[in-house]
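LAB NOTEBOOK - FOLDING QUEUE
OPERATOR: T.R.
BATCH SIZE: 2
PURPOSE: Compare the predicted structure-token outputs for two unrelated chains run back to back under identical settings.
PRIORITY: normal
REVIEWER: second-year student, initials M.K.

ITEM 1
FIELD SEQUENCE / FIELD STRUCTURE:
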Amino acid sequence: MADRSAPSCHLRLEWVYGYRGHQCRNNLYYTAAKEIVYFVAGVGVVYSPREHRQKFYLGHQDDIISLALHPERVLVATGQVGKEPYICVWDSYTVQTVSVLKDVHTHGIACLAFDLDGQRLVSVGLDSKNTVCVWDWRKGKLLSMAPGHTDRIFDISWDLYQPNKLVSCGVKHIKFWSLCGNSLTPKRGVFGKTGDLQTILCLACARDEVTYSGALNGDIYVWKGINLVRTIQGAHAAGIFSMNACEEGFATGGRDGCVRLWDLNFKPITVIDLRETDQGYKGLSVRSVCWRGDHILVGTQDSEIFEIVVHERNKPFLIMQGHCEGELWALAVHPTKPLAMTGSDDRSVRIWSLIDHALIARCNMEEPIRCAAVSTDGIHLALGMKDGSFTVLRVRDMTEVVHIKDRKEAIHELKYSPDGNFLAVGSNDSSVDIYGVVQRYKKVGECIGSLSFITHMDWSSDSKYIQTNDGNGKRLFYRMPSGKEVTNKEELKGVQWASWTCVSGVEVNGIWPKYSDINDINSVDANFIGQVMVTADDYGIVKLFRYPCLRKGAKFKKYLGHSAHVTNVRWSHDHQWVVSIGGADHSVFQWKFVPDRKLKDSLHIAPQESLVDSNSDESDSDQSDVPELDSEIEQETQITYRRQVYKEDLPQLKEQCKEKRKSAASKRRERAPGNSIRLHFVHGYRGYDCRSNLFYTQTGEIVYHVAAVGVVYNRQQNTQRFYLGHDDDILCLAIHPLKDYVATGQVGRDSSIHIWDTETIKPLSVLKGYHQYGVCAVDFSADGKRLASVGIDDNHTIVLWDWKKGEKLSAVRGSKDKIFVVKINPYMPEKLITVGIKHLKFWRRAGGGLIGRKGCIGAMGRADTMMCAVYGWTEEMAFSGTSTGDVCIWRDVFLIKTVKAHDGPVFSMHALEKGFVTGGKDGVVALWDDTFERCLKTYAIKRAALAPGSKGLLLEDNPSIRAISLGHGHILVGTKNGEILEVDKSGPITLLVQGHMEGEVWGLATHPHLPICATVSDDKTLRIWDLSPSHCMLAVRKLKKGGRCCCFSPDGKALAVGLNDGSFLIVNADTLEDLVSFQHRKDVISEIRFSPGAGKYLAVASCDNFVDIYNVMSSKRVGICKGASSYITHLDWDIRGKLLQVNTGAKEQLFFEAPRGKKQTIPTLEVEKIGWASWTSVLGSCCEGIWPIIGEVTDVTASCLTSDSKVLATGDDFGFVKLFRYPAKGKFGKFKRYVAHSTHVTNVRWTYDDSLLVTVGGADTSLMLWTYEMEGHRDSRQCDSEESDLDSEEDGGYDSDVTRENEINYTIKALSTNIRPMFGIKPHLQQKEPTLDERQGVVRGSRPPVSRALPQPEKLQTNNVGKKKRPIEDLILELVFGYRGKDCRNNVHYLNDGADVIYHTASIGILYNVATGSQSFYQEHNDDILCLTVNQHPKFTNIVATGQLQLLLFMCGMQ
């Protein structure tokens, strides 16, 4: 049975034994429903003591280490560790996520606290700065962040009696924070004489600016404002870990095992010493307390939770126990009862009842325990120890039977034989010892075939053989009880194994990923009856596979919860449960096994939503029954949008060429040409890798995109308007519900989304900063306020924006495979759906994150690739089109039915008021009723149906349909072949727009005396275009191969076309029928040219470095030009038709005589004198200036000279079209540049009368027409043209003052060390114990301060020299002379109708009263103020903003 699909049964988490007490504090609370919330490993647990039931929150993927309870006590916030840790706010009642806060912290989240009304949440990170962040958690928005402290912070709390105030404490500090605007400002607590400076572990805020804090030595420090006013000494005998405030007062818990209750004025009420109670023990340490009414919850270091009822305080009730710190490896299940035994490095062995969910026995051993086994009769429990010994206990009373030590290294595995006679003990000494149970465990055999430590073993059912696995991944077999190795495989043929816990062997090949280290699966256990097995690995994942599992990379279901490595996993004796144990999280998880038949009943229960799916992404891919991908989709998924160089890299690249710039700037360079071009018309539409990117606007125009241009096309006037804000390929387009704005997303290193108005063609908003490489899908919400976008980075990140504010609302990793479409639910803008390769997910927004649930296919179908999706007539209905031609109908997340709609993939779908319209690869447009019951009408896109007004010709019948839109009584259809068609409801089809299909376009030729051009492309077509205002494609011909070049004969009657297989054709320019064809070459024909005049000769250049010359009349080859060292790129004839100029890929400029092809050497000066019939060359002194500074990175691919030889147009690899004055002598000439093409511009040509410039883009498949405008014609839109790469000094230098100010460098000043050397000891540093720095010999002055702000004094001590306790007099600023004018401007203003003057100098804002001459000061800045402005709005009188100098800049507002 080689079924690689995932098993259909599943596991459900039923109970977790344990509580995280180590390295955490304040993580245990009562909720409003009187349930208890805490966490263990990566699971948030809500425990109901009344029903003895647990609920689990599974939204984290690593250890949870912090928890806070919302003031209404229903919502819980938890923070985790990890490289990109996040905070989840979740509902303790439904255990569903409410909000996710992410993308700010690193390493982990150490503490959390809600403010009084529960609107804001503060978090502290584990990064080196212990960053403090304040969140608007519902929106998932960061309000403020600041570095917390250089050392660990242990607790943080909002002051519940003063708004916008917080207190944090930690290693040797306490800080009082105020939140003003978006800045958090700390003040350090002053310990003074009242108490020693020491580590503060916890705190609680009270009325009147009083704060109580618990210190490491057991004292309680009482603060008023920022000053320590008194201490309560000896409140505890050791560190106070937890402090909890409630209506009655305060509860504290400490390392001394005591809980103390205090009244509201911190007078002691009572003390509860847990060590003295029945359940207590020496060394008990309290980590968390929570006091509500007459109940107190206590969490301890050793994973216990006690509940104390106040009036019976000496009888605490133990409600949860778990293993203590240290790894947990040993697990065994009882052979006949629902019991599990575990043993850990904490040296305890514990027996758990799987029915009562309780610990029923524990026993402490001398050594850490590494493995366990129960004998077949259930009487003996054997434990393998870390020191190489093993102990056997009686299960019923935990008394010792024997203790044997035969080995030096840890015992990692032991097992009783099925007949109960032997115990096999495997150790890290690479051997297995066999002991006779009946002979009081006498050693009877030894197996010594392994070369590495023994990891797993199993007995055969007849107790005659064992199989072992070792650390090298070797599987060996031994005969029992002698221990002789079995090498003859025949002998083992019929052996039945009593259990299967080995990780290597044919039966379990499939549990290993295709490429993986052999050690990362720690444990396996097979359930022979259910034909499933469960595995535990180093990534905290429990997986369920089919058994046997023969082929590598089998599919599975995965379950998260354990945070670090899962060390062991076992089925219970009756296969009802799976028990798994975590190493570092030392927790025991009990999972309920839900077989297939039960699944059907539970289908109505929605799956547990989590940030990570239980049916893992890796697991669902390439399932055995997933259909082959459609060729077209496959092609699309293989397109890469990565560029070697992005346009964003240009400034950096230019920086790197600084030396060249300097030399160039000193020389006088040719001015840019006075004439300019303006984009006039674009032939092309991007359909081959995009979908649903074509819409009617409000006014009935059509909006779509091609290359880097957003096009608004008026079909009545046949004119286009262009949005040119993008600088690289646009990949997606969505229209606002009001049909007036569109959003377009482009390719780029940090790619952007532009929202622009189709009427004014002006951008309204540009969104950047979250998508790498490109944006492949966008969608507006129904209210038009939000925008969803999907990136083409490896995780296909999904982002939800408030586009008007330019604010990211939420983000999440979408899928490893390509996502094609995102749609926002029209009824609930918090919900969205994405579809893609083997992917369909329903998302809902939760704060800064999105929570996804896979569509539940159930027994209906299989995971298919989805190409499109729409929402239906109610909020829970959704419809998706698959790659096999079905439409899936979803309610909520469940698939309810599928309808066959098309042959081949359904690429586009559109919802109407009363139905749907779909389009597929089969070239059919189908109209459906609103339930997809009936197909009302179909339209086939056929050549025969083309209406007379069409702007071109259909290349083939039934082209693949990629976009559909409805409006104005028509259906608009976009095809893969780059056509836009308008289908009338009655049937006729009008072709509106057309371009080349996928493949690069290189060949371009303009007609010698008509407004016509020809193009030839890798899409194997030759096309003739009309450049007059009718703008249509006149003719098209399919070729046997793609082509790279073409040329009209001088009389315009013939057209020569060079193909990619080395052949070329000459065709009739009107009918495109063959006149002649030749093939002398194997490689691509790269350029082809008729000689001028009568067009007697034809020069044909190829990529195998030759130019062949043919006599057109006699159709014979008359000459070959040899001598080029690389492929030929450009060809030009001189006017006489006697000389050829050739450019090659090695940047050679060569000359050959025609017709024989003899190579000539011509001096540069002579070349300039020759009259050329055309100039398309990019080399030589006449066009030296067209090569950019970064010429190594980019190539100039094409050029063309106007007939008056004044302006040279060029196209380059960056997608720029540039105009230069000709001749462009001298390096780095100035130019005008235009962006519309996205990648490389492959060819440029002027029309015969220079009225238009025609350009073609390589991969963007578009043909663009630019009108040529003379100098007098003022450029109406300046934005099209940009000045050249560098501005030289001649453009008008700077005034000397401006130059000086421009060169002031503020940073050095701000970072400089003290200028004047200091002598002596400052008074407050005298007679003080040496600080840590001084003890380590660090000189204080040697560390440059980051800014000139004074370092915060560690303690404000009084000057003890005079011994008289006289307080230091304060200095008060009285008068400041000076005003900063040298490098500032507009920084003096009148206030109060001219009564006062405001200005600044140094770090002080000064308000000068004109009448009295007095000054008052704003002194909150700590470095030079550089700018000042006054708010002019009548509502905000006397509000001033000033900005200062500092590494981390901040702004202050003053009144």
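ITEM 2
FIELD SEQUENCE / FIELD STRUCTURE:
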Amino acid sequence: MSVGPLSPSTRRRLLRGEAGPLPAPPPSSVAIFISSTASDMDAEREALQSTAYPEVQTFCQKHGLMFEVVDLRWGIRNIEATDHLTTELCLEEIGRCCKTSIGPAFVVSVSGGTAIEWEIERGLLSSEDQDQRATVFLREIQDVHKHVLEDCALRMVDRLADGCLDTDAQSLLSNLKAHITDVHPGVLKVHRLPWSRDLVNPKNQTHARYLKELGEQFVARANHQVLEHLCELDMARQEMAWLYQEIRYHLWQSSEVTQTFCGRQELLARLGQQLRQDDSKPHTPLVLFGVPGIGKTALMCKLAEQMPRLLGHKTVTVLRLLGTSQMSSDARSLLKSICFQVCLAYGLPLPPAQVLDAHSRVVQFFHVLLHTVSCRNFESLVLLLDAMDDLDSIRHARRVPWLPLNCPPRVHLILSACSGVWGVLDTLQRVLPNPEAYWEVKPLSGNQGQEMIQRLLAAAKRTLSPVHTDLLWASLPDCGNPGRLRLAFEEARKWASFTVPAPLASTAEEATHQLCARLEQTHGRLLVARVLGYIVSSRHGLSEAELKDVLSLDDEVLQAVYRDWTPPSKELLRFPPLLWVRLRRDLGYCLARRPADGSTLLAIAHRQLVQVVHERYLSGSEKAERHGVLADFFSGTWSQGTKKLITLPLVGKPLNLDRKVAPQPLWFSDTVANLRKLKELPYHLLHSGRLEELKQEVLGSMSWISCRGISGSIEDLLDDFDLCAPHLDSPEVGLVREALQLCRPAVELRGMERSLLYTELLARLHFFATSHPALVGQLCQQAQSWFRLCPHCVLVPLGGFLQPPGGPLRATLSGCHKGITAMAWGAEEKLLVIGTQDGIVAVWDMEEQHVIHMLTGHTGEVRCVKVFAKGTLAISASKDYTLRLWNLLSGQEKFTIWDGSSKNLTGPQIWSLHVDEAHKVVYSASGSKINAWNLETAELVFHILGDASDPWMCMAVLDSQATLLTVSRDGVVSLWNSATGKLQGKQHMSSIKEETPTCAVSVQKQGKLITGFSNGSIFLVSSEGDRLLEKLPDAVRFLVVSEDESLLAAGFGRSVRIFLADSQGFHRFMAADLEHEDMVETAVFGTENNLIITGSLDALVQVWSLSEQGTLLDILEGVGAPVSLLACCGALVASASWQSSSFKVWDLSNAHRPRAPAPFLDRTGLTAVSHNGGYVYFPKIGDKNKVTIWDLAEGEEHDSLDTSSEVRCLEVAEQHKLLFTGLVSGVVLVFPLNSRQDVICIPPPEARKAISCMSLSKREDRLAIAYDNIVLVLDISPGDPCPLIDGPRYTFYTQQPETISNVAVLTDYRVIYGMTNGDLFLYECANSKAFPLEAHRSRVTCVEVSHKEQLLASGSEDALLCLWDLQACKRKFQMSYTSSYCRGVQCACFSKDDKYVYVGLKDRSILVWSVLDGTLLTVQFVHAVVNRIIPTTSGFIAPTRHGYLIRERFQCLLAKASQQDPHKNFQKAVWMVKSSQREALAAAAGAFQDLESDSAQGNESKSNKCSQVCLIV
């Protein structure tokens, strides 16, 4: 076996899909042929099977290799072991093992017989490298010749028919031994034993030692050979080896198929002509269809072979025979392999990891890639995808989302599908309605059929007699179905020249039944039924080793096998491999070998045979029984020494025997997962009806979930749940599935990692652990057990704190590489249409939650999207000055309209679209023009040109009045006829002074345009004039109306005001506005007008009840960026941002019902916590003059405190049970927590000074109150009935122009304060001295003092975190952090023992930092910004913006656990640590080197920069 990397020319040829010599596939398993006589080596066989084989198997599994022993003489009678067919099969198996095995392939165990001479010649002496892959164990018995002559019954030597010693055989054996010694001395292992009449008796101490040494030598030799060849493979392995193997496999399949191709020349010519015609223009894909077996695959392969001749020698051809390999069986893997091949073939950048994380992104990358290739205007690209019926995701799909429905120039897509009952062709015809795209593959002519048979006979080196030839043609009158012809050939090749066979079947189905009947006659019905039944029942196929193991677990098969003889061992029982090899040989072309999971699996090659197997062997209960045995095998029920009872016919009593099947752990080693078990076991448990076992061992096992996720992806996990959930009446399974769905953002950010998955699921499912103990409770217990033993530093959730399943969040989806700029629902079809900054229009199926079309064509940002025609059509407007009309069902572009007045791309762009379905007109508006276009012909209806000096700011088409109305920047209202575009009048708006329009919305029923202005005015504008509706205190940011136009919402500043329609227009609906914490960006009304959903600059989506006068029902976290778009469809609401490629979909059907547990609704981040997390305090929603007291255990408001002024900050003194509230008025009110005693009031030092921040010392004996530039320090002392607050003891001014942003106070009256510009100071009150500390680069967001008050941690908005020594007033460490989508430190605190610093970041993560050496110990993504962190004995509690309280334990079992990189999987994140001590040492060393530089010329000065800075990416 030679291994080596592919040459560059071979790689180029493979990538381009060119025909030619193909490299041999790399070996993928360890297959050892055991060559030994059947009669005299039973003791050795049993010893090897008992101990050696399992050891080698375990070793191979740890290296990701499947292990197989081929011993064809085990378990059969002597007469079968020595017949001619067995010898022939042995030689074939030796060749297979030598070809496919990594390392050892041939082992001889020989004593005195010569029956295996040919095998030794084939397996050892005929190959140059076999000394590295073979082993000969030779057993020599002392004084054997003397005893042989005395006893003619001895089995260990060859004898003549009369019983005399065969001297010729003995001479031949001696010569063979001498030859082996001379040629391959290293392979010979000789064992010399004393004479024993039993030959080898395990009870004999010497013999037992021999058997033990034999096993140890076998294990050592085999393992060594495996390792050597693995090293060779590792050296030869190259990047993208998986891709080249996939390409090679399909090209090899193609070359095999086309060897007997004949006919179809006219069809090939017409297809070639069509491809050449389409090469220079956009066109639809081509679909070849026909009945099963008609020859579509052969035609596709022949077409691929001819592509360089048809389209040019540089054409890149990508061929995939779908379903024949693991990577071609599902859409995700298929698109990945195609994208990689095309990128490498054209020298384009490969898809990054962020794209590969989500299937929707891969789909977009694929579509964009095709257009990129087209724009190169050079080499053509041809994608041939054969047998679309065999792609898992298409069989029952309504749509084919990844399928390009329109190919750009120089890109061709050719598909094939079966006609008839399969259903895939119907799906394709639905999405590709163009009849010219479909090409039927018709039967061959009679002459072509005969030519095909002759080619098959020639390839098999077989001829038929005239009588047999006449019978063959008579049985196939005018048969042009190549599949049927192949079946006929397979039967005819078995005919002996002296027999007169029965006529062949007339149909393919009958011929397949005839094939099965012939196999049953030869091998027995039971064996044929079980072998074919197990292969068909498997999910992806079975390897030969797996199939032999499964047959060894089938008691009925073993009882039939050992009906006439007893097995050779009293301890173990296996299925004799020879019986399988015989059947496999007769199955021939019916079996396909397919690469999957690093091994080769057997599958049924033909769809017709699969159907027949189901009919004959898998009807009734037989199907569940086959799945049950497969489930036993893949679950490992009878492995690792577990014995299984069986009663054999000749024994008559139950035997408890070891079946010696492969063990099935989830992990073979720390890095090698049992992929076969992961993919097969759920399928078989489900179809065998073992649903409770499925729930407990798979869906309810954290070990299984983590192994499946880590070895695969979150998509694989969700696929397993989707496979099983419809068959399980279990709400718990739905909860776990939804929890996994909610994990997606964290997985995409950090990558699939075990601690992340355990944290995500535990923190989401813990809410339901008590109410759903059977599955959810079990998962939580397993997660907690894993955390207790976790060797790495980790944060352990002690309760639920992430968005739980069952909440409003339905999905977080991402399919776009840039921000989302437009969004609209197609309600009837449940489609969501999204426009992006990079010009993509994405169409999402929200029932399936995947993208179904990536509509490309726009070259600029998509500004507007309108969906109409009952959700089937959409029109988009872009910055590229084009309008494009799309069919949302087919994904095809109907037409493109150039909407620019000229080719000048600097003119005003479209900002408004209006679709008039009744008149089939679309209106587009920009600052200086309005165009009306016919939606059917794309012709211009009219064009209105405006005044560039006074551009239009608002436009509305009032359908009821056939009027088009515009409002200009200077307040000029123009009226036009919407049918003709003729001007009907102009008027200047009244009372408009120095205001410009900012937004507008039309009210069709009233025939008005509601316009908002920059100074807060809202006007009702109509053809009759204008009227002021409302004067708001700030500029109007947006206006929206409900679907029935009965409600109007106006956004301004941080508020939204609601209006109700009346006969005069609108009037104010509620007395109070909907108040937000940041600028409002957008809003949308619920379908039933009982809700309004608002989005704001702080990335929050808020749900308000209109039926309850503006009660806030829920606060939802957006995508981490300002909420700029909201769209509603029934109970579903989608939220998106211009700054994010992701969007979220919420189900608000339960918005009126409180969820358990209900999160606390705080939007300010001004939260405080008391009673060890029992109560949370925050400004009351809608009334910041009150403080809400929230009971976390009950999930409801416990009480409220009246402060009479807006709250600015909150602090809790846990020991003294006090709540300090800092107010805008400058007053601090102190509320006792456990009683309703008098409130303490601390007045401000100056009137009207608002409080900036407050801080308590760690002992709670000092209070610092900071204003903009003043700090007060007060004493707190115990008192009865409540503590006493004295002071202020000290008051000082900062003398700085900037204001204080954060403050901390020490017991010794030292104060640390940070400024808004990043300055940081330490002030000693006793000495009235200020010490400037090294400044941050931006606003200081937190200053925290350690519990012993020796250290200080400071953080800032520029993501800089510093640790200070307060005694020396020097910085110890500086840590800077940058992530891809948010920067900055939000809060921090020291652990109780001051060993760690817990830090909350604005990128919604928490990290733990070692105080000792500045090491980053762990990072945890918590999906929400943490408002503050409060230390506990073992960890911390922290309230989040989601309204949950994080409660975690920090666990670091090993002193050096921090050596594991906690940041290794984070996408686009950089962490840097600098040590001041190291910097000083390095500076001193540099100065010392400078002093010595004169006397040491030529020596390069070495700075110690690597030790100063640790950069982790």
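REVIEWER COMMENT (ITEM 2): The first strand starts at residue 29 and ends at 35.
FOLLOW-UP: none requested
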